[in-house]
Design goal:
The complex is a heterodimer.
Chain A (H helix, E strand, L loop, with lengths): L8 H18 L4 H25 L8 E9 L4 E7 L1 H25 L4 H20 L3 H10 L1 H11 L4 H29 L10 H4 L8 H18 L8 H8 L2 H26 L1 H27 L4 H21 L3 H32 L10 H4 L1 H14 L6 H15 L7 H27 L15 H19 L2 H23 L3
Antiparallel strand pairs in A: 1-2
Helix pairs in contact in A: 1-2, 1-4, 2-3, 2-4, 3-4, 3-11, 3-14, 3-19, 4-5, 4-6, 5-7, 6-7, 7-9, 7-10, 9-11, 9-12, 10-13, 11-13, 11-14, 11-20, 12-13, 12-18, 13-14, 13-17, 13-18, 14-16, 14-17, 14-19, 14-20, 16-18, 16-19, 17-18, 17-19
Chain B lengths: L1 H5 L1 H19 L2 H4 L3 H18 L4 E3 L4 E3 L1 H20 L1 H6 L4 H20 L3 H19 L6 H32 L4 H11 L4 H18 L7 H8 L2 H7 L2 H17 L1 H27 L4 H21 L5 H24 L20 H4 L1 H15 L5 H15 L3 H27 L13 H19 L2 H11 L6
Antiparallel strand pairs in B: 1-2
Helix pairs in contact in B: 2-4, 2-7, 4-5, 5-7, 5-13, 5-14, 5-17, 5-23, 7-8, 7-14, 8-9, 8-14, 9-10, 9-11, 9-12, 11-14, 12-13, 12-16, 13-17, 14-15, 14-16, 14-17, 15-16, 15-21, 16-17, 16-20, 16-21, 17-19, 17-20, 17-22, 17-23, 19-21, 19-22, 20-21, 20-22
Classes of the chains: A mainly alpha, B mainly alpha.
């Protein structure tokens, strides 16, 4: 079968949600029409992103489908987009989770100001897709910030009771980090050459012509890493996350956990590491320690959570610890593991938030102590939820296992000093065990035991909810059983990023 | 005749102001109310066109005036700002019984003064321009005669403004004493010989910095600002928070770089420190305000600090001048829009703007107004894709280039701090429901249309800024430190 080849497909991906916004703004007062427009737009976006995936040439390390147009001629800043093995799945994950979120939200969960909700989501999708496509630091920053305002509104308008506190905290944390990154970006621009030849194009910056001196790298890396560490979030910058997740509406939680956090991990791999390898080396010990702390701390705190949503939120902190650990052991296994972990976490935690949301819509309870015995009432729900819980705790055969396993392999293989990789690997492995503890214990308390009288007549999953969850279930199993095709895509590009970092390091030896 | 043609835009605006006063006297304000703003708008467009149609460059009026790209840029900025002021004001003026024709004429006279400041290459022209700009603004502040706060604002602004003018003119006297001339070029030669070691130069430079610092609302010379901005009728506030500030920076750039250029490089540290103090001071006090108008007044002080950082970075060349000019233009539109957004509220004859609580649920009451206000606030916060973000991006670049890394970090941290109070306004508009205490909204199609246009402009320029930025780069060439 010949699939259609779309020219400039990456720009098309950026533009589709914007185009969808136009009819949406026309019918914004009509909830039904607004839902339909948003559904069609996000579905078209999903289909186009899958066609883009089909166009992707597996095994190539460099960027593909690159488009580059001069944007600000007086500064030499370009509109430059492209995709490689690291970003390609993240883009598809974005379009998929956005579609699922819109689908689930249009089934009656969002009751007021539906049109505005959908508009915010489409705008958010532009930012999320753009972040993974941008190859110019300026363009990247614009997309990175573009995600901020829609998410701010989504949490603040359609969130829970403490939504305003949560959304302000989310915005201020993120903004403080990203503004420092802006200073670092400008510094990179100034250091990139003589006036008139300056650039922020990633490809030009790493092509060997630009050298940043060591002190500069240490500071610039800090600027970038702070922004990403807050977004990711790394301990100790994670405190906004539980609040934002607990108060966000379900769809907001899904994309927040599934996509927005990934922008942080992606930024570290794509920009911070290859651009400033010396800076990365200087900060590496601290990041590794913080990653391991995040894994243990996130798991430990999850164990004692009373609120279901908060438990999933803190588990994200632990899972993101694996991502940063995998990136900064600086070998291919760890890096591939980190990218897989990002994809898997997007699928699984997105799904967990979806199911916590579905459950809350039915019972209006989120405290674990108030729940129990749901398994008898909801066989379908229990099956789905059970698979995602098992995937989240890293059961072999499901996707959660693959990423964490590769990260641990990479950690054991690394020769970090002064304390070697095996020590950190061993500590991190404890986190996997803790994950089993808090997730299974939670599952037991929520699903088993005696059901409350009030929950007796609550319906099981609706067809829309099954439709929203099914793609995630399929991905969970496929990624778990056949990870190799995915690794084949990711590995060459990831190896290239590490090679770029090595090449830059070699300049200073 | 070439002299006259060279300043044709200024002449057109002045004639326009006189024409409006004439219409007021003959036709009568009430009968002309409907079409008077359009007369002013058409005249302003004509003034802009006359500058394009008769391009001039060089020294005129025996060296009192210089027309160049710098002048052209500021003409463009001032005319655009006056144009939007005239278009957003009518409904407020009518409801609050502020004399309309006088308002338009006063704004136009002040605009002529501001344009003259950008023309001047001589202390005399500069002073005349500054006064022609300032005196109408004192009137604008007190124009809502029956409101005691407006009276207070007018009086306070007048007294402190007169005080600052006196300091400035005293500084000019010292400069004249040093150079024996009021021409910038002569002053530059004399000052270069004396150097910063000379006490006379230090005194002159300090007095001029303080005097212009007053006009631009630089901390610690900002004390008049909150009361004057808060008490003035809102359309006056919108105008006087942008145009006089831009004019003050036009004066600083031209005088400091061409007149005092030889010393400027040693003087920049003073500006850098003032910049950091100003942005931090403005933002910290803005954080605790509950009246949005007063909050925006402090926010405009903070923005003075950002712009001053660009002045401090003047050693890094045209990019610094361009950053200041671009910022002034962007700030002009976004700040004018933000103040103008408060004009929806019927404050019953007072000038007090609106409290945060009164903004509750504005979204459901006036969607376009709330969205436009949000766009201006996002601009002020410096979040992309807006012209306000680009202004900060263009600004950080020369600041870092000049070696003020600490100042660049201060800008970033201040922007994060400021985002808190800007976004808090959005919280009240979008995330709380309106209650019974919410003030009545004034019907105003013209205000809504103008705000929508301005909001769209800030976003379009946020994506495609190159034309304006290239213009600003051109305009910065005459004020390069030589």
């Amino acid at each position: 079968m010949n699939l259609p080849v779309i020219d400039n497909v990456l720009t098309v991906l950026v533009v589709i949600p914007l185009v969808g916004l136009i009819p949406l703004l026309v019918v914004i007062r009509d909830a039904r029409a607004a839902k339909q427009v948003a559904l069609v737009t996000t579905f078209v976006e999903l289909v186009v992103s899958l066609l883009m995936l089909a166009q992707f040439r597996v095994g190539e390390a460099g960027f593909q489908m690159v488009e580059s147009v001069m944007w600000l001629p007086s500064l030499g800043i370009r509109y430059e987009v492209g995709i490689d093995g690291i970003s390609v799945f993240l883009v598809v994950l974005t379009t998929l989770l956005t579609f699922i979120s819109v689908l689930y939200s249009s089934a009656g969960v969002i009751k007021h100001r539906v049109g505005e909700f959908m508009a915010a989501f489409l705008l958010l999708e532009v930012g999320m897709v753009g972040v993974f496509l941008a190859l110019d630091l300026f363009l990247f920053y614009v997309f990175f910030e573009l995600m901020l305002v829609p998410m701010y509104l989504i949490i603040g308008i359609w969130g829970g009771t403490r939504r305003i506190y949560a959304t302000m905290k989310f915005v201020l944390f993120t903004l403080a980090g990203s503004l420092l990154m802006l200073v670092a970006i400008v510094a990179v621009y100034l250091a990139s050459g003589e006036p008139g030849q300056r650039t922020l194009s990633f490809q030009e910056l790493v092509s060997g012509g630009v050298r940043f001196d060591p002190t500069f790298q240490v500071l610039a890396f800090l600027g970038f890493a702070l922004a990403f560490a807050i977004k990711l979030p790394m301990v100790p910058f994670h405190t906004w996350l539980p609040d934002a997740h607990v108060e966000a509406p379900t769809a907001g939680s899904i994309v927040l956990a599934g996509i927005l956090l990934k922008a942080g991990g992606y930024g570290l791999i794509r920009f911070a590491l290859p651009l400033f390898p010396l800076g990365a080396q200087a900060w590496l010990p601290i990041i590794v320690v913080l990653s391991v702390i995040a894994i243990i701390y996130g798991a430990a705190v999850s164990t004692v959570q009373k609120d279901l949503k908060k438990l999933v939120a803190y588990s994200s902190v632990a899972h993101m610890g694996f991502v940063t650990l995998g990136i900064f052991v600086l070998n291919v296994q760890g890096g591939v593991g980190a990218v897989l972990q990002m994809i898997n976490h997007g699928v699984v935690t997105g799904a967990l938030f979806l199911f916590v949301g579905i459950q809350y819509e039915k019972t209006h309870r989120r405290l674990i102590a108030d729940l129990g015995g749901l398994a008898n009432r909801w066989p379908l729900y229990t099956t789905f939820f059970g698979v995602f819980v098992l995937a989240s705790l890293g059961l072999p055969g499901l996707n959660g296992f693959v990423g964490e396993f590769l990260v641990l392999l990479g950690t054991f293989a690394s020769d970090m000093r002064p304390i070697g990789g095996p020590v950190w690997g061993a500590i991190a492995a404890v986190g996997v065990i803790l994950a089993a503890v808090y997730l299974l214990w939670m599952f037991q308390r929520v699903m088993y035991g005696t059901a409350r009288e009030a929950y007796r007549d609550l319906p099981d999953l609706s067809p829309v909810e099954v439709a929203a969850a099914l793609p995630l279930l399929v991905l969970t199993v496929v990624l778990g059983v056949f990870p190799q095709p995915f690794i084949d895509v990711i590995e060459p590009s990831l190896a290239r990023m590490l090679d770029l970092a090595d090449a830059a390091l070699a300049l200073y030896r | 005749m070439t002299d006259v043609l060279a300043v044709l835009p200024e002449i057109v605006v002045a004639a326009l102001a006189a024409l409006i006063l004439g219409i007021d006297a003959t036709v009568g304000e009430e009968r002309a109310a409907r079409w008077l703003p359009w007369v002013a708008a058409a005249g302003l467009v004509g003034a802009l066109a006359s500058g394009v149609y008769y391009p001039a460059s060089g020294l005129f009026f025996r060296g009192f005036v210089e027309v160049d790209a710098f002048t052209a840029f500021f003409r463009f900025v001032f005319i655009v700002l006056a144009l939007f002021t005239v278009l957003v004001a009518p409904s407020y003026l009518t409801r609050q019984h502020v004399p309309r024709a006088e308002f338009y004429a006063t704004v136009l006279f002040s605009t002529v003064g501001a344009m003259t400041v950008a023309l001047s290459t001589d202390l005399i022209t500069l002073f005349v321009g500054l006064e022609l700009m300032s005196i109408p603004v004192y009137v604008l502040a007190g124009l809502q005669r029956r409101d005691e706060y407006s009276n207070e604002a007018g009086l306070k602004y007048f007294l402190l403004g007169a005080f600052s003018s006196a300091i400035l003119v005293y500084g000019f006297a010292w400069l004249f004493g040093i150079a024996g001339s009021t021409e910038y070029s002569r002053i530059a030669e004399a000052v270069a010989q004396e150097g910063l070691g000379s006490p006379a130069v230090i005194v002159a430079l300090s007095l001029v910095t303080v005097g212009l610092g007053f006009k631009a609302a630089v901390v610690p010379f900002h004390q008049w600002t909150p009361d004057a901005y808060d008490g003035a009728p809102t359309p006056s506030t919108a105008f006087m928070s942008v145009a006089p500030k831009a004019a003050a920076f036009a004066a600083i750039l031209r005088l400091m770089s061409t007149g005092l250029g030889p010393l400027h490089v040693d003087w920049v540290l003073v500006f850098a420190i003032l910049a950091a103090v100003t942005m931090t001071g403005g933002n910290v006090v803005a954080l605790v305000q509950t009246n949005v108008k007063r909050m925006l007044a402090y926010s405009s002080i903070a923005h003075t600090g950002y712009i001053l950082a660009g002045v401090a970075a003047i050693a890094s060349g045209a990019s610094a001048g361009a950053a200041v000019l671009f910022y002034l233009f962007a700030y002009g539109i976004m700040n004018l829009g933000a103040f103008a957004s408060l004009m929806y509220f019927d404050t019953g004859g007072t000038t007090r703007g609106a409290t945060l609580d009164e903004l509750n649920g504005l979204w459901s009451r006036h969607a376009v107004g709330a969205v436009a206000f949000t766009v201006f606030l996002v601009n002020l916060a410096g979040i992309p894709p807006t012209v306000g973000f680009l202004a900060k991006f263009f600004l950080i670049q020369p600041v870092l280039d000049a070696g003020f890394a600490w100042l660049a970090v201060a800008i970033a941290l201040n922007a994060a701090l400021a985002a808190f109070y800007y976004l808090r306004v959005v919280v009240h508009m979008f995330m709380y429901d309106a209650d019974a205490k919410a003030p009545r909204l004034l019907p105003s199609r013209l205000l809504t249309a103008s705000l929508a246009v301005m909001a769209v402009v800030t976003i379009v320029l946020g994506v495609l800024p190159d034309a304006i930025y290239a213009f600003a780069l051109d305009a910065a060439v005459p004020v390069l430190v030589r």
